[in-house]
């Protein structure tokens, strides 16, 4: 598989840096340790071989481990495929979140796990002490418990789990380079399928969905609904400590920065909003309307690893035409959505 450099952490560094500058010694300490972890990723003992995958198409092979607040991976196996609820919310949320993500990719796109060959879905919970992040390390998912003051445990939102696993799917499909516009597309696709997994699990129509990424992750001390809003980029949170959600929702507000791999978690707001606009314009279930168009684009051999927003938008349009026809309402909605965010003229 093509691997991208470094871990794809859920929380971007700029958010943790703000917490690391906070007045509370405890919050400062948790954020600094999390940032240290995230930048010294290569020192982590990652799983070298994956456990057996699933030979039965339509059935996942899940393995959930408990790191017991240590930083060794994968930790102790506490729940495997087919076993009953453990009673530990983090373990059970991880197990069910892996299943919800598997079901979206299998039932909607006939994809058998991340590699379409039944690859084992491996997760570790209770990673580190007060670790404030979740990440996909190229082989497995890892979840921290949060600090309990600003962040709840990272398994709490199914879209966060599906977001991280979608990075795995993206990596198997040739991996959009994780920097600048291609990196923002990588982030956006992870949000698209993250949000789709939640909508599919809850059988929500586009008009009913909250279009939030990470709802439930903030404790009620934070002034915010979630980490990101696909419908209203820039309006997910506005908090004295965390600052304001920096995502733009239009090319006019595109952020030029070297931080965050060139703003991958920031400018992803633009393609996120295009997808959301098309989904809402078409109505019904997003997994029957725009979801398949975006999936066709993700697996399209013409999708270059350094693809930027304009060629990506053109490719989604071409896939809408291929699937639904050139004068279809789907093609029209996709074209209008990209115009709405200023990517297509
Ligand atoms: Zn991500």
TrEMBL record:
EC number: 3.4.24.-
Start and end residues of each Peptidase M4 domain: 88-170
Subcellular location(s) per record: Secreted
GO molecular function: metal ion binding; metalloendopeptidase activity
Chief subcellular location: secreted
InterPro entries: Metalloprotease_M4 (IPR052759), Peptidase_M4 (IPR023612), Peptidase_M4/M1_CTD_sf (IPR027268), Peptidase_M4_C_domain (IPR001570), Peptidase_M4_domain (IPR013856)
CDD domains in the record: M4_TLP
CC per GO annotation: extracellular region
Entry superkingdom: Bacteria
UniProt keyword annotations, A-Z: Hydrolase, Metal-binding, Metalloprotease, Protease, Secreted, Zinc
Spans traversing the lipid bilayer: none
Gene3D superfamilies listed in its UniProt record: 3.10.170.10, Neutral Protease Domain 2
Requisite cofactors: Zn(2+)
Active-site feature positions: 164, 265 (proton donor)
GO biological process assignments: proteolysis
This protein's record includes keyword Cell membrane: no
Domain Peptidase M4 C-terminal: 176-343
PANTHER family named in the record: NEUTRAL METALLOPROTEINASE, PTHR43579
Family statement drawn from the similarity comment of this UniProt entry: Belongs to the peptidase M4 family.
Function comment: Extracellular zinc metalloprotease.
Protein's name according to its UniProt entry: Neutral metalloproteinase
Organism: Billgrantia pellis
């Amino acid at each position: 598989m093509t691997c991208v450099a470094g871990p794809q952490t859920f929380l971007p560094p700029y958010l943790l840096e703000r917490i690391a500058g906070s007045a509370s010694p405890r919050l400062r300490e948790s954020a600094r340790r999390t940032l240290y972890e995230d930048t010294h990723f290569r020192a982590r003992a990652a799983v070298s071989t994956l456990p057996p995958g699933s030979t039965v198409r339509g059935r996942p092979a899940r393995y959930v481990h408990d790191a017991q607040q240590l930083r060794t991976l994968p930790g102790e196996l506490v729940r495997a495929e087919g076993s009953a609820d453990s009673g530990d919310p983090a373990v059970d949320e991880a197990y069910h979140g892996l299943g919800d993500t598997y079901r979206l990719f299998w039932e909607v796109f006939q994809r058998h796990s991340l590699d379409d060959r039944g690859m084992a879905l491996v997760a570790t919970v209770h990673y580190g002490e007060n670790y404030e992040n979740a990440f996909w390390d190229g082989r497995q998912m890892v979840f921290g418990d949060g600090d309990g003051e600003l962040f709840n445990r990272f398994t709490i939102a199914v879209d966060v789990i599906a977001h991280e696993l979608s990075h795995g799917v993206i990596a198997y499909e040739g991996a959009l380079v994780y920097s600048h516009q291609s990196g923002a597309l990588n982030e956006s696709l992870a949000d698209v399928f993250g949000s789709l997994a939640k909508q599919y699990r809850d059988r929500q129509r586009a008009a009913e969905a909250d279009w939030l990424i990470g709802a439930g992750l903030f404790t009620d001390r934070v002034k915010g609904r979630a980490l990101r809003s696909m419908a209203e980029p820039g309006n997910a949170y506005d908090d004295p400590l965390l600052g304001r959600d920096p995502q733009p929702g239009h090319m006019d507000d595109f952020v030029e920065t070297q931080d965050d791999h060139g703003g991958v978690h920031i400018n992803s707001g633009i393609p996120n909003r295009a997808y959301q606009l098309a989904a809402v314009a078409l109505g019904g279930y997003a997994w029957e309307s725009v979801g398949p168009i975006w999936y066709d684009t993700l697996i399209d051999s013409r999708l270059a690893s350094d693809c930027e927003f304009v060629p990506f938008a053109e490719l989604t349009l071409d896939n809408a035409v291929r699937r639904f026809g050139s004068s279809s309402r789907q093609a029209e909605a996709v074209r209008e959505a990209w115009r709405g965010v200023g990517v297509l003229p």
